[in-house]
Design goal:
45% of the residues lie in helices and 13% in strands. The protein is of the alpha/beta class. Helix 12 crosses helix 14. The longest helix has 20 residues.
């Protein structure tokens, strides 16, 4: 057994017993009595804990004398991951992103099989992944180019019309505003006490763009300024804050808040999955990953939750670890626990 994973056996055993697809590729388990090694999600009957050995890679399990399970084919997982990693590199480094047929041909797979495998591994389609990478290049180019048009073409976009149709969602503002660090974007905010301490809600002309929780109004305002460093930010009377405070007290009302949601294609998928979790219920990070078609993207789901800037409205507090423990809440575990308890008792 690999020494580096000995301290994680309890979590690995829980993933194995739950047949957690989100753990596939994170570790492999071997059955001492049969000489076979498997993926955590394998449908085979769970062995006794004392008959299990854990390995970080398929190669390590085979080096220890175990053969791959014919049911879950664990040795195929590393090969698939390598193919998708190569496809991602091809997309990232190409001046013009390869189309689906070219990517599938390079992986020696049919386009439909490659498409399913890519989405399962990364959480997004090849097209969406390419769009995200173009957006990243555009963000970098917008900081140095003389004009927005120059930045769009320098970052691999064939034209501006299609880019402008989708860029606002990925950048969180128009390309012109992003180029100037948000200068000219008007954001108003209000702060009020709530059941969780203090809440700051900010909005653009599109909708509420931030809901921050904390204990100090000055710190909350500073966080907003850091999030939108060059926007025109103004404090206003709480003409819209009442709805936010009410949503904190009764989370079901958060579904009705008008939101200005920004993020990558993957983050937006996670946010939609979070909003689909009913108040009073929870879902594990691996369940959310499976829900969006990316069972291996557990860490990426957790990162998306951490990037959420719309507390309660996008209920990342309903995401929990596989063992049921609370972890990773941007506004503190005490608030996460209080939100969940209030929802379960409603």
């Amino acid at each position: 057994m690999d020494a580096q994973i000995e301290t994680q056996i309890e979590a690995f055993l829980a993933a194995l017993q739950n047949r957690d697809r989100g753990a596939d590729g994170l570790f492999f388990y071997a059955v001492i009595t049969t000489g076979v090694y498997c993926l955590p999600s394998c449908a085979a009957k769970n062995p006794r804990p004392e008959n299990i050995a854990y390995y970080a890679t398929a190669e390590a399990a085979e080096a220890a004398g175990y053969r791959p399970c014919r049911r879950c084919r664990p040795n195929q997982a590393d090969r698939d991951a390598g193919l998708i990693a190569a496809a991602c590199r091809a997309i990232e480094t190409a001046e013009t992103a390869p189309d689906l047929a070219a990517l599938a041909a390079a992986a020696q797979l049919s386009p439909s099989h490659f498409h399913r495998l890519f989405r399962k591994t990364t959480g997004v389609t090849p097209k969406a992944y390419a769009a995200e990478k173009r957006a990243e290049k555009t963000k970098a180019a917008l900081k140095t180019a003389k004009t927005v048009t120059e930045a769009i073409y320098n970052s691999g976009h064939g034209g501006s019309s299609r880019f402008h149709a989708t860029a606002t969602a990925s950048l969180g503002m128009t390309p012109k505003d992003f180029r100037t660090g948000g200068a000219g974007q008007n954001i108003c905010y209000a702060v009020a006490p709530c059941a969780l301490g203090m809440v700051l809600a900010a909005r653009t002309k599109t909708g509420i763009c931030a809901i921050f929780l904390g204990d100090d109004e000055t710190e909350l305002a500073a966080s907003l300024a850091k999030t939108f460093p060059k926007a025109d930010i103004a404090r206003v009377e709480n003409d819209f804050l009442g709805d936010v405070v009410a949503a904190i007290a009764a989370p079901a009302r958060a579904q009705n808040l008008p939101l200005d949601i920004a993020g990558t294609a993957f983050q937006r998928q996670v946010f939609e999955a979070l909003r689909a979790i009913p108040p009073g219920e929870t879902a594990t990070y691996s369940q959310i990953a499976a829900k969006i078609g990316a069972p291996k993207a557990v860490r990426a789901v957790a990162s998306a939750c951490a990037a959420n800037r719309l507390a309660v409205a996008i209920p990342c507090h309903r995401a929990i670890r596989a063992d049921g423990a609370l972890a990773g809440y941007r506004w503190g575990l005490a608030r996460k626990k209080k939100l969940l308890e209030a929802e379960q008792n409603a």
